[in-house]
Amino acid sequence: MNDPARTARSEDPAGPVAAWRRLADGAVLLDGFHALKHAVRFGAEVPVAIAADRGAALALAGELAPDVREALAALLTEVPEGTYAALVPRPHPTGVAALAVRPSRAGSLAKLAHTPRTAPVVVLDNPRNLGNAGAVIRLAAGFGATGVVTTGTLDPWHPTVVRGGAGLHFATAVERLTVEELPPGPVFALDPEGEDIRSLRLPDDALLAFGSERSGLSPELRARADHLVALPMRPQVSSYNLATSVAMTLYHWSATGGAPA
Ligand SMILES: C[S@@+](CC[C@H](N)C(=O)[O-])C[C@H]1O[C@@H](n2cnc3c(N)ncnc32)[C@H](O)[C@@H]1O
Fold first, then answer.
1. Burial class (CB in 10 A: 0-12, 13-18, 19+), 73
2. Gap from CA of 238 to ligand 1 centroid (Å)
3. What's the start-to-end Cα distance of the chain, in Å?
4. For atom 26 of ligand 1, which residue has the closest CA?
5. What are the helix (H) ranges across the chain?
6. Of all protein residues, whose CA lies closest to atom 12 belonging to ligand 1?
7. Ligand 1 neighbour 248 (Cβ under 6 A)
8. Whose CA is nearest to atom 23 of ligand 1?
9. Ligand 1: centre distance to CA 191 (Å)
């Protein structure tokens, strides 16, 4: 109890709860310790962060993320377990949750359009599965991709996508656009009928486009494509999962010249 941050915050448990209720609608939910850790590492603005056991959360930080322990100590307020559980859709095993400010669309669009580009933009053409979209954002963050653009109706900032992305939406530019609005750059569209990826070098300014889980690349995206690229696949296998296709393609980019940041 001699931690001043903890004492000051514990004395006013209504503070974070009121802030949470006020901000929850327009904010990005960071669900669990790892999502908060990643978001803080990549510069997210976090106006409120709560823990059912602040000491346990900071011990986890000391063990797994000492680089952000101090920042988390300044952010995290302890609330009773029941209060925490009432504020989140589903309690996380780490008992940690936070709200972050979504980066401005204008800022993300500027990052996506900036040239010369030093790492590709991943385009998901009308993706349907929220978990796939989250996994792709995590991959893009890991490989230092410029960003992830989705076309179609799926919201790439949907809470389930953010959960799948483990807080890494803040490490890359994430936006929804139409095919006509895609940023400049040669489009390498992934399709089993394309040219074998092993014979190609993917340039840093590429848009790497992937089709929908249901129906593959749309006619609009095909019309915009400069190259169709195939991942090696044995006959009789129809296709790979969307996120694993992105993983193989980003790996190929990194292994043939591009490099994770
Ligand atoms: C699950 S697949 C789509 C399957 C869909 N039923 C179809 O008709 O194409 C999702 C996306 O992953 C990429 N993909 C999957 N397997 C691939 C392969 N062997 N070569 C190139 N791209 C592939 C493509 O971009 C594809 O549109």
1. middle
2. 8
3. 41
4. 211
5. 4-10, 14-23, 33-41, 54-64, 66-75, 81-87, 105-113, 130-143, 159-164, 219-224, 242-255
6. 242
7. no
8. 191
9. 6
Does 128 sit in the ligand 1 pocket, CB within 6 Å?
no
Which domains, ranges and CATH numbers included, belong to the chain?
4-100 (3.30.1330), 105-255 (3.40.1280.10)
Residue 101: strand, helix, or coil:
coil
Token pair of 58, please? 């900071």
The residue type found at 106 is A
The strand pairing partners of 107, in sequence order, are none
Task: Name the phi and psi angles at 78, rounded to 5.
Answer: -80, 135
Percent of the chain with pLDDT over 90: 92
What residues pair up with 124 in beta bridges, in sequence order?
150, 210
> What digits encode the pLDDT tens for the residues 221-248?
999 999 999 999 999 999 999 999 999 9
